[in-house]
Write a structure and sequence with these properties.
heterodimer; A: 5 helices; flat; B: mainly alpha; 2 domains; about 0% strand
Chain lengths: ~160, ~270
C-alpha cells in the first residue's frame, strides 16, 4: 500500500526548520504577553558581529579554494585578486564597524579584543553547528537503516 | 566576558600565539594534509598533527592562563567526551542496521543507544547538575552559553526539517519521519525545560537571554556565509565572462568520419538473450 506523499515545497521545508523558535515565541506571547528575554540592541550587535565574522572567515576559506579552481585554468591571477579584495573588504568593514563605538563593541575594551572574541565565538558556534548537523543527519540515517530491508521489485510492481 | 584593552607585554601575546592560535591552525591543516597529500603515511601523520593541535587547545587554559580566548579550549575539553559519545553511538546504531557495506554486529545497536543516551544525559548534567564547565568555582565558562543553546535549538530545527523532508521526498518513510519528530520534540523539551527550570549555576532567565543570542548568531552566520558565497560566485562569473569564446574547430573530414563509423560498428551488437 503506497502512502500519500506531501507535495515538496521550499516554503514547507523552511517552515519546518523555523518551527521550534516560532513555537517558543508563541508560547512566550501566550504566557507572558511579550517577547521575554529579547534585547533587540544586544541581539542586533550579535547578529552583526556574526555576519561580519562569518563573511570574513568564509571568504578566507573560499580564497583558499580558488587555488584548486586555478589548477584547471592555468592559474589565472584575476579571480584570486578579486577574491583577495573581497576578503580584505570584509576585514576592513569588520574593523571599521567595531571601531565605531558601542554599536558592535560587546563587553570588550578594544577593537582587537572584540575581533579576537568574534573569531573564537565563531569557532564555538561552528562547533555547535557541526555537532547538531552530525546528530540530525546521523539520526536520520540510523532511522532509515533500522527499518526492514526493502524489496525493490515490490516497489517497482506498485 | 570582559577582554580588557591589550596592555600586556609582547611575551604573553607570543605565548598565546604559540600555545593557542598555532594549535588552532594545526587542526584544519592536519586534516587537510591527511586528506589531500598523495605521500605514503600522510594520512596518519596529518591526523596525528591535528590530534596534537586538539590536545594543545584543550590544555591551553593551563598553558596560557592570561589569554581569555583559552576559555574556548576549556570548553572543548569539557564537551569533547559527551559529543564523541553521541556521535560514536549514532555511528554504531546506523551501521548495525540494514547497510550494504561496513555492517556491524547487531549487538552494537544496544551499545550505540546507550552511548548516545549517556552523551545527552552528560550534556544535560552540564546544565542542571554539577558538571557545568567552570573556569573558577561558580564562574561558568561563558562559551558554554554559546554552545549549549546553539546546539539544542539547531538540533530541534534540523530534526524537524528532516522529518518533513522524509515525508515529502521519501517513499513510505512515515516511521523514519516519526523518529525524527521525536528527536525534534525531545530537543524542544530540553529547550522548554531550560527556559523554565534553573540549574545550580545557570538560571532560566540567563538561558533565555542566551537562546535568543544563539538565534541571532545563527541568522548572522547564515547571512555572512551566503554573502561570501555570492561574492565568490560573482568573482568566478566575472572572470569566466571576460574570457574569449573558445575557437571552433573545423568539421571532421571524410576519412575521419569513415574511421569513426568503423570503430562504432565494431563495438555495436551483442549476444542474443
Amino acid at each position: 500500500m503506497k502512502e500519500s506523499n506531501l507535495t515538496f515545497t521550499w516554503r514547507m521545508m523552511l517552515l519546518a526548520f523555523l518551527l521550534p523558535p516560532l513555537l517558543i515565541l508563541a508560547i512566550d506571547i501566550t504566557f507572558y504577553g511579550s517577547f521575554k528575554g529579547i534585547d533587540s540592541n544586544v541581539s542586533f550587535t550579535r547578529f552583526s558581529n556574526a555576519t561580519l565574522t562569518a563573511y570574513m572567515l568564509c571568504s578566507l576559506f573560499l580564497l583558499g579554494n580558488l587555488f584548486f579552481y586555478g589548477e584547471s585554468r592555468n592559474r589565472p591571477l584575476a579571480p584570486l585578486v578579486g577574491m583577495f579584495f573581497a576578503t580584505a573588504l570584509g576585514v576592513v568593514a569588520t574593523v571599521f564597524f567595531i571601531g565605531q563605538g558601542p554599536m558592535l563593541l560587546e563587553d570588550n575594551g578594544s577593537v582587537r579584543a572584540q575581533a579576537i572574541y568574534n573569531v573564537v565565538h565563531m569557532f564555538v558556534s561552528s562547533g555547535a553547528i557541526l555537532v547538531a548537523m552530525g546528530v540530525a543527519l546521523g539520526v536520520t540515517f540510523s532511522a532509515i537503516t533500522s527499518q526492514k530491508q526493502r524489496n525493490n521489485f515490490e516497489l517497482e510492481e506498485e | 566576558m570582559n577582554i580588557r584593552a591589550c596592555s600586556k607585554g609582547m611575551d604573553e601575546m607570543l605565548v598565546a600565539l604559540f600555545l593557542f592560535w598555532i594549535p588552532v591552525a594545526m587542526v584544519p591543516l592536519g586534516l587537510w594534509y591527511s586528506m589531500s597529500s598523495p605521500l605514503k603515511n600522510a594520512s596518519s601523520r596529518g591526523r596525528l598533527f591535528a590530534f596534537t593541535g586538539v590536545v594543545l587547545i584543550c590544555i591551553s587554559p593551563w598553558t596560557v592562563p592570561s589569554s581569555p580566548s583559552t576559555a574556548a579550549g576549556h570548553l572543548l575539553g569539557a564537551i569533547i567526551g559527551p559529543c564523541m559519545l553521541i556521535l560514536l553511538g549514532i555511528y554504531l546504531i546506523s551501521f548495525s542496521g540494514n547497510v550494504p557495506v561496513g555492517k556491524l554486529p547487531r549487538s552494537d545497536r544496544k551499545l550505540g543507544v546507550l552511548m548516545t543516551g549517556f552523551g545527552f544525559i552528560w550534556l544535560a548534567g552540564m546544565h542542571w547538575w554539577i558538571l557545568t564547565p567552570q573556569l573558577s568555582p561558580n564562574e561558568v565558562n561563558h562559551y558554554w552559553f554559546v554552545f549549549w543553546p546553539t546546539f539544542i535549538i539547531l538540533t530541534s530545527c534540523l530534526a524537524s526539517c528532516s522529518a518533513v523532508t522524509l515525508l515529502m521526498i521519501g517513499e513510505q518513510r512515515k516511521a523514519e519521519s516519526n523518529a525524527m519528530f521525536i528527536v525534534s520534540g525531545l530537543s524542544f523539551s530540553i529547550l522548554i525545560l531550560g527556559l523554565n527550570v534553573d540549574g545550580p549555576l545557570i538560571t532560566a532567565d540567563e538561558f533565555r537571554e542566551h537562546l535568543w543570542l544563539a538565534v541571532a548568531d545563527l541568522a548572522g552566520i547564515t547571512v555572512g556565509t551566503l554573502l561570501s558565497i555570492f561574492v565568490f560566485a560573482l568573482v568566478i562569473y566575472s572572470y569566466e565572462r571576460s574570457l574569449p569564446a573558445p575557437k571552433s574547430i573545423s568539421p571532421p573530414t571524410e576519412s575521419e568520419l569513415k574511421q569513426v563509423s568503423t570503430l562504432i560498428a565494431s563495438h555495436l551488437g551483442g549476444e542474443d538473450e
